[in-house]
Write a structure and sequence with these properties.
The complex is a heterodimer of chains A (436) and B (224). With 436 residues, chain A is α+β, with helices and mostly antiparallel strands. Chain A is 51% helix and 20% strand. Chain A folds into two domains: 172 residues, no CATH class; 239 residues, no CATH class. In chain A, the strands form three sheets. Chain A has a six-stranded mixed β-barrel with strand order 3-4-11-8-10-9. In chain A, strands 2-12 form a two-stranded antiparallel sheet. In chain A, helix 1 packs antiparallel against helix 9 and helix 1 runs parallel beside helix 11. Chain A is elongated, with a radius of gyration of 33 Å. Chain A starts with a helix and ends with a helix. Chain B has a single domain, classed as P-loop containing nucleotide triphosphate hydrolases (Rossmann fold). In chain B, the strands form two sheets. Chain B has a six-stranded mixed β-sheet with strand order 6-7-8-3-9-10, with helices on both faces. A four-stranded antiparallel β-sheet of chain B has the order 2-1-4-5, covered by helices on one side. The two termini of chain B are 22 Å apart. The chains are: A alpha+beta (436), B alpha/beta (224). The interface between A and B is medium-sized, with 27 and 29 residues. The structure holds adenosine-5'-triphosphate and magnesium ion (MG). The site of magnesium ion (MG) has 3 residues of chain B, from helix 1. Adenosine-5'-triphosphate (ATP) binds next to strand 2 and helix 1 of chain B.
Chain lengths: 436, 224
């Protein structure tokens, strides 16, 4: 066909320019491909990354869970031991099928105490506690790892490994400011009244932290101190668990709704996959009077980081697309200017504006397609490099990305060609043909 | 009715009157030469007749139809259907062979037809060079490709702006011979030229100066 003869001719003549256009588009497409793939895959990646940063399962006793979230510390600081988990059972967590995936855990007791005449919240927990398991192994676990995002403003973490006196506390930044406390100060904490006697301890502040949540208003102390204050020795209210999990899929969602709805084969598969729901299920098997559930708050902070990362990548993508559009617009405009004689001649022999635009756009789109396909595969490579350097694993390619990139490149190429099209429309044959 | 009638046409660029109240009739089949010094408005007039420009004032009747106020789009289609253009600088598309350059004109007119395009090249004596690129052709040969391209769609008028300006005498004569032939076939020819020899072979000659027609003479020795 004559049309393609013309296009072929233009390519032969302008192959260098076309190559540069293709490379520009390829670079843009590769960035878009890499970013979109990382973005779509990064949910899982960041999730995996963030596992280490916080508990994602909480375990409470069934009766406490029935009272549900109404179960809070009562004002007088009383906590009922029949709504609690035996401290001795905590280690059973490490006996489940997916024990290896449980990276850290910490039991907590939270109670209301009086400090300097005011009511405050104190949380008792393990920091870096040594726990002997029934298997004979020992593990060191606690909030030092679970809350690794805490920023220590001054002092240090409580260290249960150092043979230190456990009359210590870490306090939140806002609490420290309100009470005008600093590291080394002592705070007198009064807890529950048992047999007419108020349980009191004096704790030395060893660290001030900033968590960025309501913990900043409270006190953290070794578990046994708070158990003493609330009169709940050997019991814990709640266990926070951090586990490496497999992202949920349909099977996991089905199981989360109702385990009994699974067929035997499905059950096996689900049980033997580290879904958060199967880990919870196994924890409940190990400590039968408890309820284990996925913990929301951390998921939200993960989501927050995810949003920010995705925003950043979206911005990079948009900027690279703007760059590509500017590059294309320059190149196409200069190519059209170079060919103004030819275009003027076509107009003079009767070409309609639309025919010339179609001709030029066809050339550019052929170039764009070549560039985009090349860029897509380059982007695949970039995505893997990003995956391996940032997340230490490969990025799964998402079929949707090809489609999105195609649409973006189409739009960018069109936008980039716009100035050249305007130039072509304005071009008057009389002006180019008589060499004025 | 004349094929072309120009009534009170002026073309004004700022202060400058490139054409100043021109009146001219050209009959069907006439061979007209336009002469005049540089800057006298010859190309301006050709652009207006060739539907590539519009006059600032006045009317241009082509086949009795006023084209002076047509839209650019309509002018393009009138030009496509009625006018063949020959340029001093040939304006061949460099990456297309001779025959493809001729076919380009067919393509935008109706449909490319290689056989017909080859016949047109044969008329200008270039059949053997049909597959050559413009860069492989001499100036005279390139101008003959340009002529073949202008006549391929059987236009009513052929407009040539300095067709021999870049040619030596031998090639000039070849082009003049083709004009003679076209004239014989009844094609209307309007040829702008500096060259008295090219002017003198025409049937009629007008002279422009400062955008005005200062003389309009029939060639007594015209030998058709
Ligand atoms: N687009 C334009 N803008 C301003 N002035 C113009 C324009 N086109 C032509 N002119 C002026 O109009 C006058 C006539 O120009 P034109 O090209 O018609 O001359 P010409 O007779 O063809 O000359 P030449 O023999 O050198 O080709 C010139 O003075 C020229 O500078
Ligand atoms: Mg001129």
């Amino acid at each position: 066909m004559f049309f393609f003869r013309m296009i072929k001719g233009a390519y032969i003549r302008q192959w260098k320019k076309m190559l540069i256009i293709a490379v520009t588009i390829a670079l843009g497409a590769s960035i878009a491909t890499a970013m979109l793939n990382v973005m779509l895959d990064v949910g899982d990646k960041i999730n995996q990354e963030l596992k280490a940063y916080g508990a994602n399962i909480t375990v409470v006793s069934k009766s406490a869970s029935v009272l549900n979230n109404l179960y809070e510390i009562e004002d007088d600081g009383s906590v009922e031991v029949d709504e609690m988990i035996k401290e001795n059972d905590v280690g059973k967590l490490k006996t489940i099928f997916w024990a290896f995936n449980i990276t850290d855990f910490a039991p907590t007791v939270e109670t209301s105490v009086t400090v300097g005449g005011e009511k405050h919240k104190v949380v008792g927990t393990w920091f870096n506690h040594t726990l002997k398991l029934v298997t004979g192994e020992t593990v060191i676990t606690g909030v030092t790892n679970l809350r690794s995002w805490w920023e220590i403003k001054s002092g240090r973490w409580i260290d249960e490994q150092a043979s230190e006196n456990l009359d210590v506390a870490m306090i939140g930044k806002s609490f420290a400011e309100k009470q005008n406390l600093k590291v080394g100060d002592k705070i007198d904490v009064s807890g529950r009244v048992v047999d007419g006697e108020t349980k009191t301890v004096s704790l030395k502040v060893v660290g001030i932290f900033e968590a960025g949540d309501e913990s900043d208003d409270g006190i953290y102390a070794p578990l046994e101190k708070v158990q003493y204050l609330s009169g709940t020795e050997n019991y814990v209210q709640k266990i926070e668990v951090s586990a490496l999990t497999t992202p949920d899929n349909e099977l996991a969602l089905k199981a989360a709704k109702d385990v009994n709805s699974l067929s035997i084969a499905e059950y096996e598969l689900w049980y033997c996959t580290a879904y958060v729901s199967s880990i919870c299920y196994q924890i409940q098997e190990a400590i039968p009077y408890t309820v284990a559930s996925a913990f929301r708050q951390i998921a939200e902070s993960e989501g927050d980081i995810l949003d920010k990362t995705q925003l950043l990548m979206t911005l990079i993508t948009i900027m690279s697309m703007i760059g590509a559009a500017l590059g294309i617009s320059n190149l196409v405009t200069s190519s059209v200017m170079e060919r103004s004689g030819e275009i003027g001649l076509m107009k003079a022999v009767g070409a309609k504006n639309s025919q010339i635009i179609i001709l030029i756009l066809t050339e550019i789109f052929i170039t764009a397609i070549i560039g985009a396909v090349g860029g897509y595969f380059m982007g695949f490579g970039f995505a893997q490099i990003i995956g391996h350097t940032v997340f230490g694993s490969s990025i799964e390619m998402n079929g949707m990305v090809a489609f999105i990139v195609a649409v973006i490149i189409l739009a960018v190429t069109l936008v980039g060609s716009f100035p050249a099209i305007r130039l072509m429309l304005r071009l008057r044959p009389s002006e180019v043909l008589h060499g004025r | 009715m004349s094929l072309l009638e120009i009534r009170n046409v002026s073309k004004i660029y700022g202060e400058l009157k490139a054409l100043d109240n021109i009146n001219l009739k050209v009959e069907d089949g006439e061979w007209l030469a336009i002469m005049g010094p540089s800057g006298s408005g010859k190309s301006t007039m050709m652009n207006i007749i060739g539907c590539m420009d519009k006059p600032s004032m006045g009317e241009v009747l082509l086949d009795g139809k006023d084209i002076s106020k047509e839209s650019e789009k309509n002018l393009t289609s009138i030009r496509r259907d009625k006018i063949g253009l020959i340029f001093q600088q040939f304006h061949l598309v460099s990456y297309m062979s001779a025959v493809e350059n001729v076919m380009l004109s067919q393509y935008y007119h109706s449909m490319p037809d290689e056989k017909e395009a080859l016949e047109a090249l044969e008329r200008v004596g270039l059949k053997e060079r049909a597959k050559h690129l413009p860069s492989q052709l001499s100036g005279g040969e390139q101008q003959r490709v340009c002529v073949a391209r202008a006549l391929i769609n059987h236009p009513e008028i052929i407009l040539a702006d300095e067709p021999t300006g870049n040619l030596d005498e031998a090639n000039e004569n070849i082009v003049i011979d083709i004009f003679r032939q076209l004239h014989k076939e009844g094609t209307t020819l309007i040829v702008v030229t500096h060259d008295p020899e090219v002017g003198e072979v025409a049937e009629r000659m007008i002279r422009l100066e400062h955008g005005r027609i200062i003389s309009d003479v029939k060639n007594e020795n015209f030998r058709g």
